[in-house]
Design a protein that fits this description.
The complex is a heterodimer of chains A (253) and B (253). With 253 residues, chain A is α/β, with parallel strands linked by helices. Chain A contains ten helices and ten strands. In chain B, helix 3 (52-74) runs antiparallel to helix 4 and helix 4 packs across helix 7 (178-187). The chains are: A alpha/beta (253), B mainly alpha (253). Chain A binds chain B through residues 45, 48-50, 70, 74-75, 77-78, 80-82, 84-86, 88-91, 101-102, 105-106, 153, and chain B through 122-124, 126-127, 129-134.
């Protein structure tokens, strides 16, 4: 289980997270939804210790992430797959080596690595891309390779940072299906950061709406869709004309 | 003390602290022998072998110029075989290591800073961390070791080239025989002339690689910052070469 407890984070004078608290239950896919700049990706980076909270704590499987020593953090990270917004593939390596790098780190034999990489690439329907380099791939293919790299590690958790941003609707739908299929096949617990509503409704068991650095509402897809909160309604309906109502609600928040 | 004076001091000490922490991290990463040895061979080729052409080019022309300038200076006052002495001493003690160091501060320092800076902004460094790698062990240690080990070889080759072109120039363009040139070369020769240059080269490699890594990994966002970091790496690397050259002269001559 992943738990955020009253997490605060600022960059200089810019306060991003202001008391963020929520839990991700084992086996579920939780979608972190919200406007750009509300701290969704910042929250995600706290889970793998890429960022340290100014106050509060993030707990994964009962361990407070920022209190772990180097060895403990490396052990924790080996249980988490991270799919980056812009894929973050190693551009000097082939697709195969991108997948193999983390597996070699885990001490697997080259034969097992080859099997694991082949299986992961098959899942994302890129069986023939093993020898290609990231620069030879389209944006959608890179996202799928990023996903395959995370899946190949067989992690307990997968964190998706804006997995469909910048993709056309059809490729976005393919990525959404992959996220669902990965969960069904491997039973991983996932956190998906997005502002793509269609994606959120497709992949999420629960949705948490972030607003001004804390959770505004958390609930099932149905609960979010039927929300009466003006801030949630403005976001999911994409209606800027609700600004006055939102201001009043935000002031009261 | 007025704030105007305190602020630059504070910034300077902050910078020194950052560099010290960075070096401490790199030293600590030496213990991670699962990671850095595999990368070091590749870096030795990139930093060492690939730098030979520019080093040979610079020192080759320097040898020619030195022989001609020595002849011009000595004409009528000093026996011409001193051309061999001047070419030998100057190339071995000073111009071989320093000019090669300056050329490599550009080639190697810029290369390291640009590569690591790009990796930083494309989240490849974060991706390494999520795959349970320690970036200092994977990125910094191999480059620093490779530069420290390979610079003396490159400088030795550059020095030999400078001596050879100086000799060829003296024999073909000046009225000097091989015997006279060699006599001059051996006149004040000490074994120290060789190891002094190589020790300097080693320190240049160490400094240039650390500065390149520090500037590259210090990038936070955007292509402009990568460019600025690259420029900084070249300028500071060149300054380090000049300062170290003086330090070694004080300590060893």
């Amino acid at each position: 289980m992943i738990a955020f407890r009253d997490v605060h984070k600022a960059f200089g004078s810019l306060q991003i997270l202001r008391g963020l608290s929520f839990e991700v239950r084992n086996g579920e896919t939780l979608v972190l939804l919200g406007y750009s700049g509300t701290g969704k990706s910042v929250a995600l980076k706290h889970i793998v210790g890429l960022l340290t909270p100014d106050a509060g704590e993030v707990e994964v499987d009962g361990q407070v992430v920022h209190q772990l020593d180097r060895k403990g953090l490396a052990a924790l990270r080996s249980t988490i797959g991270y799919v980056f917004q812009f894929s973050a593939l190693f551009d000097s390596m082939s697709v195969y080596d991108n997948l193999a790098l983390g597996l070699r780190r885990q001490g697997m034999s080259e034969r097992d690595i080859a099997e694991r990489a082949e299986e992961a690439l098959a899942l994302v329907q890129l069986d023939d891309a093993a020898g290609q380099f990231p620069s030879e791939l389209s944006g959608g293919m890179r996202k799928r390779v990023g996903l395959a790299r995370a899946i190949a590690l067989r992690p307990r958790y997968i964190l998706y940072d804006e997995p469909t941003t910048g993709l056309d609707p059809v490729t976005s739908a393919v990525i959404d299906q992959l996220i669902v299929r990965t969960r069904q096949k491997y039973g991983v617990t996932s956190v998906v950061v997005t502002h793509d509503l269609r994606s959120a409704y497709t992949v999420g068991d629960r949705i948490a709406m972030l607003y001004q650095g804390r959770i505004r509402q958390i609930g099932t897809v149905d609960e979010i869709q039927k929300s009466h909160d003006p801030i949630v309604r403005q976001f999911i309906e994409g209606r800027p004309e609700l600004a006055a109502e939102v201001d009043a609600a935000g002031a009261g928040a | 003390m007025p704030r105007v004076l305190l602020r630059p001091l504070h910034r300077w000490f902050g910078g020194v602290g950052h560099v010290a922490a960075f070096i401490q991290d790199a030293v600590r990463a030496l213990r991670d022998v699962r990671t850095w040895p595999a990368q070091t061979g590749h870096q030795m080729r990139r930093i060492g072998s690939d730098s030979v052409p520019i080093a040979v080019f610079v020192s080759g022309f320097t040898g020619i110029v030195l022989a001609l300038q020595a002849s011009y200076t000595f004409t009528g006052a000093v026996p011409l075989y001193f051309v061999g002495t001047l070419v030998g001493k100057t190339i071995m003690l000073e111009l071989g290591p320093v000019l090669t160091g300056l050329a490599l501060a550009g080639r190697v320092g810029a290369n390291i800073a640009a590569e690591l800076g790009t990796m930083r902004v494309t989240e490849q460094v974060d991706a390494l961390e999520t795959l349970a790698f320690d970036p200092p062990a994977y990125l910094v240690v191999p480059r620093v070791l490779a530069a420290t080990v390979m610079f003396p070889f490159v400088v030795a080759l550059a020095t030999a080239t400078g001596l050879f072109t100086g000799y060829v120039t003296a024999v073909n363009l000046l009225d000097l025989s091989t015997v006279e040139f060699v006599r001059g070369l051996r006149l004040f020769y000490q074994f120290k002339d060789i190891w002094y240059g190589l020790v300097k080269a080693m320190s240049f490699g160490l400094a240039i690689a650390i500065i390149g890594c520090y500037c590259g990994l210090g990038v936070r966002r955007g292509a402009a910052e990568v460019g600025a970091a690259t420029t900084r790496a070249v300028v500071r690397g060149s300054q380090a070469v000049i300062v170290l050259d003086a330090v070694w002269a004080v300590l060893l001559l």
